[in-house]
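To whoever picks this up:

The parser on our side crashed when reading a file containing two proteins. I've narrowed it down to the boundary between the first structure block and the second sequence. Both blocks are reproduced below exactly, byte for byte. First block:
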Amino acid sequence: MSGEKGRAWIRIIEPDEAEGALKAVYDATSAKRGTLAAIHKIHSLHPETLTAHMALYMELLFGQSPLTRREREAIAVAVSRTNGCAYCVAHHAEALSRYEKSPDSLIAVREGRWNVLDSRTARLCQYAEKLTRNPASVREADVASLRDTGLDDRAILDAAQIAAYFNFVNRLVLGLGVGLEEERGGYRY
């Protein structure tokens, strides 16, 4: 289980204590994301990793892609749900709610009921779940199934990269006790 009230299991340098390179990275991250989340601060002892983390995050979730922002956030929730990462489910279900207006679909993604979703989103979530649960079981047929919904190879690459990214982040959260912030407002989705 993650740390309580955002308190991680390793030392964190808070923004008001940050100096030098860490302060610069915190300031840049806040400028891009609107505020600092606990997942950002977990990098405080090695700020270069926060810079790399944020560059990958911004490209995968906000960069040019054949996948919509809605689809990308659905993949994020699907992976995080599969891993039992309540922190990332909460953050990315909130982001998904900005793009998915159907309450039934929002609940379905959070619960892993892919059959309720449109075919393309359902297959993306099924693929992300399979890649998360048992990556060695993924076959070419799984990729072909994504193509059958009209996704091209670039979209499929993006889906795999987003799933892999969230597996990385979920393991930081779960492995270091990153707890959900009491107040989560101010993020740019």
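<<boundary where parser fails>>
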Amino acid sequence: MASTSDIRNGLCLNYNGDIYSIVEFLHVKPGKGNAFVRTKLKSLTTGKVVENTFPAGHKIDDVRVERRKFQYLYNDENGYNFMDIETYDQVSLNGAMLDRPDFLKEGSEIEILFHAEKNVPLTAEMPAHIILEITYTEPGVRGDTATNVTKPATVETGAEVKVPIFINQGDKIKIDTRTGSYLERVKS
């Protein structure tokens, strides 16, 4: 058992029969009344974000989690299959546990959070950015550079990304996996 003084970003806790991770918190000491902690909690099973306020000194049921590195192998009818880099054990996750499965490339490394006591996968975290090759895009129109003009492009995983008009087929680009947006062109 922990208390509100132990609250920090990334702490996992049991709340309303589900496991939540603390995304954001703020200790508040008003002029009148008791202190409290305002939090934003993200469900590790559904991904839903809820806000909650805990009174100061309130006991919370924290959950011990482990982060393990896994390598993406393939996708089949059972879900997305990953291999533990250290033990070579394999685990299959459904698409709902992944934020952006359309950016997964064979051999990509991700982190999977496991419930330490039950050894059950809770959620998977993609890397902040990934480098992929453009497999198809229309050629850019010359002289159309007055504003930030973008065009659709298909990357090697099959996902579609909006890219600037100077990006061509065969270029490698860095993509932000949280937003799915183009970051920069990568020199080969």
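After patching the parser it read the second block fine. The CA atoms of residues 31 and 80 lie 52 Å apart. The domain at 65-125 is CATH 2.40.50.140 (OB fold (Dihydrolipoamide Acetyltransferase, E2P)).
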